[in-house]
Amino acid sequence: MKWFNTYFIDVLKNHYVDFTGKATRKQFWFFILIEIIILAFVTLIAFSVSNLPHMPYYKILISLLTFVEIFVIAMVIPYLAIGARRLRDAGLNPFWLFLLIIPYISNIGQTPVSSAIIMFLNRLFKLLGEGNVIKNLDNIIFIITRLIGSLALLVMFVLPSKNIEIKASNEKL
Q1: Among 11, 167, 154, 8, which residue's Cα sits nearest to residue 87?
Q2: What is the pTM of this model?
Q3: What stretches of the chain show up as alpha helix (H) in DSSP?
């Protein structure tokens, strides 16, 4: 139980919004592991309660799924904070975390262009006798960019620590 307090409770209590400093690989991956275990446990409870015969399961299921959503939203900031500290420990710039946001930003102004590409590709496939193959290019682009960003961050998160001094943000260079 000491590892739970060290790698999860301590991070939430003392480093909830701490984007400065460093986090070791062990601290980062234990935090992620514990977060996944808690999320899986709460989700499992939510779906097992839905099978109770004597209770209106939809009310309990909705409340438990709402709890799952609240947990996920509450864990976004600590995840970003420990991710920034982990990247800094690996000798990388914490702004690499923006790779997680790029798919959402790139999806904003893409609709007219992707619609034209979809129409062109669908006409091409109709000429080849395949029919409408591509339905929504925005979703395909979103998934691909999200996958590339997530894989790049995964590689960065497993890099070994580097002994680099951290300069305070108020120091002048």
Answers
A1: 154
A2: 0.68
A3: 2-4, 10-14, 25-49, 57-74, 76-89, 102-106, 111-127, 137-157
Residue at 36: amino acid letter: I
* Annotated domain spans of the chain: 1-76, 90-162
List per-residue pLDDT tens for the chain, 173 residues long. Answer: 787 777 787 878 888 888 888 888 988 998 888 888 888 887 787 667 666 666 565 666 666 677 778 888 888 888 889 999 999 999 999 999 888 877 666 555 555 555 666 666 667 666 666 655 555 566 677 777 778 888 888 899 899 888 766 554 444 44
